[in-house]
Here is the input.
Amino acid sequence: MESPGVQLREVTDDNWDAVRALRVRRDQKQFVASVSRSLKDAAKTPEANPWYRAVYRGDEPVGFVMLSWKPPAGPYKGRHFLWRLLIDKRYQKRGIGRDALAQIAALVRADGATELLTSYEPGDGEPWPFYQKFGFEPTGEIDDGEIVLRLTFPDR
Here is the structure.
């Protein structure tokens, strides 16, 4: 069954409440901060150069994504780091996260990057299988207890 296209849209006054209401499953809460927490983190750390979008399927907000987009300083200076990816519990297991990640990867690649980084906290129910299936590999680095992953883009 083909789902309506997944789109990344700006978070605006019109969709703010709906996007902030998105929730992961209870067993995933330790791995993914809420949208509210993410927006607070973005506001608190402008130096991380946060870039975020609501993930839509058709006219319905179904998720949220946030990157640190080539920050001017810090451990990910000049690189693209996937900071948050959250798909609402009602919409998981439908390929939406994969579609959103594919769009993010395309945007990052179009920006001239050779890789996209992310990290996860290990534990029961961790997102590693999702990222591994997408093609991410561990870098060998640990950042604040999280395992850092890299998705390398093939040369054009």
In short: Residues 6-152 form a domain with the Aminopeptidase fold (CATH 3.40.630.30). The chain has a mean pLDDT of 92. Residues 96-110 form the longest helix (15 residues). DSSP finds four helices and seven strands in the chain.
